[in-house]
UniProtKB/TrEMBL annotation:
Record's subcellular location: Mitochondrion inner membrane
Chief localization: mitochondrion
UniProt GO MF annotations: NADH dehydrogenase (ubiquinone) activity; NADH dehydrogenase activity
Protein name listed in UniProt: NADH-ubiquinone oxidoreductase chain 1
Keyword Transport carried by entry: yes
The encoding gene: ND1
Transmembrane annotation, as ranges: 6-24, 69-91, 97-122, 134-155, 175-193, 214-241, 247-265, 277-298
EC number from the UniProt entry: 7.1.1.2
Species of origin: Apis laboriosa (Himalayan honeybee)
PROSITE patterns: COMPLEX1_ND1_1, COMPLEX1_ND1_2
Enzyme class: translocase
A GO biological process held by the record: aerobic respiration
Length: 305
């Protein structure tokens, strides 16, 4: 019962955090574009996310479709995003699991299916194009992501996130493996479908992309899952490359820095062309990651011998 209560409290805290993350994003983008952002709702606009949620959830809900996949796909997307947060070190957590990294890679790999179903079941050309772009992008970058995670696992000789804190006491991987840190951050942006890699939601050519046929509560589930993934990936990047103790001030500051960096990039960079993204994933990033992995392996063998 205590574990169940812990998971419910964690879910509520994550959802509240997502609400204020959207407010933070709108504020940062507002100041980048020389405007205020939300500042009217009750006290300094702090209740704007709850107002938006109430507006979306109170919309009329209906659908014309032949399959329950239309309803189940956003639910599946939301469930997978919440499942990732089981690894977060709350009161009871699984982050000390011996195979927590493999668990994360498994859930991330399954994340492509709900978006694929959403695009296919919408029966709209824009949605199908968005989901096809997603499949091509996921195939292209997940190989790079696996090799990068494998390189880090090879250094710490463990499948658990907990070991990253033990192995970064003297020097952080963000300094020792700086090129890999940048490549990992780019891969995170591709995984999160964020600017400049938000090609499945290309508003300028796909009219919101894969979720064009979704509204009301179903759109809320898709929106929440995307922003939960942003927070989770920022946390994972902080753990893997900085190794600070959870709940320490350094960890919280670095975690917020990664979130703000993702938002800041959205405000200053244009969307990349799709063929350029494919070229970057298969020729440039893949070669760099494989060379770096071989270099780390050779250096480790030399140090051990």
């Amino acid at each position: 019962m205590s574990i169940l209560i812990n998971l419910i409290v964690l879910m509520i805290m994550v959802l509240i955090s997502v609400a204020f993350l959207t407010l933070l994003e709108r504020k940062i983008l507002g100041y980048i574009q020389d405007r205020k952002g939300p500042n009217k709702m009750l006290f300094l606009g702090l209740f704007q996310p709850f107002s938006d949620a109430l507006k979306l959830l109170s919309k009329e809900w209906y659908f014309f479709n032949y399959s329950n996949l239309y309803i189940y796909s956003p639910m599946m997307m939301f469930f997978l995003s919440l499942t990732l947060w089981i690894l977060y070190p709350w009161i009871y957590s699984l982050y000390k699991l011996n195979y927590s990294i493999l668990f994360m890679m498994l859930i991330l790999g399954m994340g492509v299916y709900p978006v694929l179903f959403i695009g296919w079941i919408s029966n709209c050309n824009y949605s199908i194009l968005g989901s096809m772009r997603l499949v091509a992008t996921m195939i292209s970058f997940e190989i790079n992501l696996f090799f990068m995670v494998f390189s880090l696992m090879m250094l710490v000789e463990s499948y658990s996130f907990f070991e990253f804190m033990n192995y970064q006491g003297m020097i952080k991987f963000s300094i020792l493996l700086y090129p890999l840190y940048l490549l990992m951050f780019i891969s995170m942006l591709i995984e999160l479908n964020r600017t400049p890699f938000d090609l499945i939601e290309g508003e300028s050519e796909l009219v919101s992309g894969f979720n064009v046929e979704y509204y009301s509560g179903m759109f809320v589930l898709i929106f929440l899952s995307e922003y939960m993934n942003i927070m989770f990936m920022s946390m994972i990047l902080t753990v893997m490359f900085y190794g600070f103790e959870f709940w320490s001030l350094k960890f919280i500051v670095t975690y917020i820095f990664h979130i703000c960096l993702i938002i800041w990039i959205r405000g200053i960079l244009p969307r990349i062309r799709f063929d350029k993204l494919m070229y970057m994933c298969w020729t440039e990033m893949l070669m760099l990651v494989m060379l770096y992995m071989m270099y780390l392996y050779l250096m480790k063998e030399l140090m051990l011998n």
